[in-house]
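Whiteboard transcription, Tuesday session. T.W. wrote the structure tokens on the left side:
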């Protein structure tokens, strides 16, 4: 089957769906969703969405974002995001999204690490992503196709013509005037991660293959408070809003050791807290916990209902019990290069939004809960660009190469697990040049074996991360490099 759409959007998280909702109803738009719609990182986002409180908070939000990002951010992008946050809040509230409010109907704001003030909207207590995702699904006026795995972008002579996609396990070629990548980050490359299982770096890998630039890929973000002792690929996040509301990180003796590393303790930025936990565990061999015992139980259960229930199901009684935690991969600060309307430089008709994009907003480390905001702000701008850019074309070139029978090979699963382990061990929170070179050898060695296309794409993205990490010899933000021991 082949068909020519106005716009194809790859991905059905906040970026893809918000963008879809901003494209005219009469346009022929298709949203491709890799699995079922709720298998995306938006759905699992707990903490909330940042908004500057008012005009006077914009400069402070900008400064908080820049400090967290180690000033590696694109300042102009940060200013755009913070200014537009007021419009985004207005748009969501006016169109019926129900954020948590007090009894008088005033919006409630929470705090997370490295924010100077409470400015994070939340919904369903600790289920912000789920509520926003359900809301956006209800607002999407366009067709959404489930079970659609994109395995190639049709690019020729500096223009994107469409995609090759397996829909319900059958190959299709779909053409479009505009193609938007909204496929999320790279979580499945890491052994321990908080991401949906669908987030596996395929589209980044296609970009590497086509010579499209990925930027800031050395800056991978590790969330400090994750319960990793479950058999499932997606590990259980304990939202940073818990610490924003006053939870402590303690060792097995109850010591709040983070103050030995940063005077802000639990409220230092995410890169610092994750690294401090990692280094403290390595130095002492002690276990580390999140302690909620200071919270009044009735309040806690109302404010964090999903965390309460999730942990109850595995035997914890919150807030009384403390939970053992570890950092885990959470978010790609870097991604596919684009301008502030999502256009991918040098490829007409191709756009990128959301976690997949590198807008420059996050710099070397993302400020908590800026991700849903970034996705919405730049998706809205991208929708306008798509409407205004002249992307129509008449006749597509011939695209001969196809891979539909070669998506998987026999040993892929084994190599995939090895890759996840090596990325965690050697391209994780603390890196050494020696470890990075070992990871690089594994990646290129595996690429030379008989492997399927999807693994090849993962390896392309892993190589981009490792090569970026090798190029940056000094530590910055979430990229932390130690001297080799020998
Ligand atoms: C969290 O709730 O801690 C995650 C929010 C984010 O990734 O910014």
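and on the right, the sequence the group agreed on:
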């Amino acid at each position: 089957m082949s068909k020519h759409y106005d716009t194809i959007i790859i991905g059905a998280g906040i970026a893809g769906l918000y963008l879809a909702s901003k494209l005219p109803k009469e346009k022929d738009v298709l949203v491709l969703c890799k699995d079922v719609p709720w298998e995306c990182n938006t759905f699992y986002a707990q903490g909330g969405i940042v908004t500057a409180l008012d005009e006077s908070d914009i400069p402070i939000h900008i400064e908080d974002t820049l400090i967290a990002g180690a000033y590696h951010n694109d300042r102009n992008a940060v200013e755009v995001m913070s200014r537009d946050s007021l419009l985004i809040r207005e748009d969501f509230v006016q169109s019926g999204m129900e954020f948590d409010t007090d009894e008088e109907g005033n919006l409630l704001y929470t705090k997370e690490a490295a924010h100077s003030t409470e400015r994070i909207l939340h919904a369903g207590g600790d289920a912000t992503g789920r509520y926003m995702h359900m809301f956006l699904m209800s607002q999407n006026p366009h067709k959404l196709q489930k079970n659609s795995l994109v395995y190639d972008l049709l690019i020729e002579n500096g223009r994107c013509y469409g995609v090759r996609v397996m829909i319900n396990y059958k190959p299709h070629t779909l053409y479009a005037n505009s193609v938007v990548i909204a496929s999320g980050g790279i979580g499945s490359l890491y052994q321990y991660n908080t991401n949906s299982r669908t987030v596996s770096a395929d589209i980044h890998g296609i970009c590497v293959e086509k010579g499209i630039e990925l930027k800031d890929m050395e800056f991978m973000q590790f969330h400090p408070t994750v319960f990793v002792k479950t058999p499932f690929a997606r590990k259980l996040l304990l939202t940073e809003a818990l610490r924003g509301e006053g939870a402590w990180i303690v060792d097995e003796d109850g010591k709040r050791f983070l103050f030995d590393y940063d005077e802000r303790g639990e409220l230092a930025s995410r890169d610092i807290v994750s690294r401090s936990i990692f280094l403290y565990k390595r130095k002492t061999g002690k276990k580390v916990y999140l302690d909620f015992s200071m919270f009044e139980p009735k309040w806690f259960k109302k404010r964090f209902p999903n965390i309460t229930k999730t942990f109850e199901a595995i035997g914890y009684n919150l807030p009384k019990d403390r939970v053992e935690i570890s950092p885990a991969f959470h978010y790609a600060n870097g991604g596919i290069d684009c301008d502030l309307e999502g256009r991918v430089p040098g490829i007409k008709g191709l756009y990128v939004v959301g976690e997949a994009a590198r807008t420059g907003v996050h710099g070397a480390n993302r400020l908590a809960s800026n991700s849903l905001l970034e996705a919405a702000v730049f998706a809205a701008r991208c929708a306008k660009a798509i409407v205004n850019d002249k992307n129509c074309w008449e006749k597509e070139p011939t695209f001969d190469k196809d891979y539909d029978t070669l998506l998987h090979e026999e040993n892929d699963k084994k190599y995939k697990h090895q890759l996840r382990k090596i990325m965690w061990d050697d391209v994780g929170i603390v890196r050494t040049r020696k470890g990075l070179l070992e990871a690089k050898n594994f990646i290129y060695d595996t690429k030379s074996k008989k492997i399927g296309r999807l693994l090849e794409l993962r390896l392309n993205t892993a190589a981009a991360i490792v090569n970026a990490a090798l190029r940056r010899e000094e530590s910055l933000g979430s990229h932390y490099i130690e001297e080799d021991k020998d």
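Someone added at the bottom: The two ends are 57 Å apart (CA to CA).
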